[in-house]
Amino acid sequence: MLRVLLLCLFCGSAFAQAFPIKPVRIVVGFPPGGSGDFLTRLIADEMAKDLGVAVVADNRPGAGGNIAAEIVAKAPADGYTLVNSQHHAINMALYKSTNYQEKDFAAVCRVATGATVLVVNNSQPFNNLRELIDYARQNPGRLFNASAGFGSAPHLATVLFETVAGVKLTSVQYKGGGPAAQSLLAGDTQMMFGTSPTVMGFIRAGRMKPLTISTRHASPSIPGIPGAEEAGLPGYHYTFWFGLYAPAGTPGPVLRRLHEAAARGLAKQETREKIAVQGMDATPSASPEAFEAELRAEAPMWRDLVRDSGAKIE
Predict the structure, then answer these.
(1) Considering 99, 223, 234, 274, which has the largest number of Cβ atoms within 10 A of its Cβ?
(2) What is the distance between the alpha carbons of residues 131 and 138, in angstroms, rounded to a whole number?
(3) Could you tell me if residue 118 is left (phi over 0), alpha (psi between -120 and 50 degrees) or otherwise beta?
(4) pLDDT, tens only, 274-305
């Protein structure tokens, strides 16, 4: 028995020393133009520098990230296929069934955390959050809200906003933040909660009007936009994050090598500045084990948020 254990340990160590010997793929469940895509391409570039092999971003949008998650859950547990995603407990609670479970993934590293921004089409008369809330209360369902898809950060930010503000919106689900933003610019929808990478360029160009960010107070990463409490909606607070996962069963040494490459990239000042420009903060986990512990601790909160929102997808 001891010989078998020692042999397994030796094989795992040898595998880690040989890793990587070919390109690594990071799957993301959203199309270009949103925070998931931006962060995936950024962390892929940084990890490639550290690992010495190509690290490729692979957009597989659809079903709120379920398609991407399923691809990685069923991939070989060798460290060459990862997914950049939010907490899997969200979709597990939101969808009646999925072709994967939380246990199908091994934690690698949290990447970044941010807030969403509530923006409106420039033709709308709302100049502050209170004006929008007053209109929405008097006209239930009359405001069309562009959303990045069921289970996305903007979707959850919206349903929490409806609960706290006591309003009812008509949300239109798109396949990512980019298409949602285009619908707002075209006037097909009147408002949206967008991740910072999705909307900040349009805000700076004067093509969208920001009313608030989805945290209680203003953020240095998103200057010039009030927090919800300052804007007149106390009690509203929502943040999102993305993190890297590998298939369950990936050897521990490989997980630690992947984490090391991601964390080193996220520690660079220039990387942190690129993320900050997009209104987010680099928040790498201390280790794969620390990220796993964070995931376990957060899971009940995300399940409760989805349950309390009343959102459910058959």
Answers:
(1) 274
(2) 11
(3) beta
(4) 999 888 999 999 999 999 999 999 999 899 88
Q: What is the pTM of this model?
A: 0.82
Whether residues 108 and 132 share a domain: the answer is no
* CA-to-CA separations, 106 to 12, 53, 294, 310, in angstroms, rounded: 16, 22, 12, 29
At 177, the amino acid letter reads G
pLDDT at 255: 98
Which of 196, 231, 266 lies at the terminal end of a domain, its last residue? 231
Please report whether residue 4 resides in a domain.
Answer: no
Binned at pLDDT 50, 70 and 90, residue 105 comes out as very high
Q: How many domains does the chain fold into?
A: 2
Domain that holds residue 118: 114-231
Q: In terms of domains, do 118 and 104 share one?
A: no
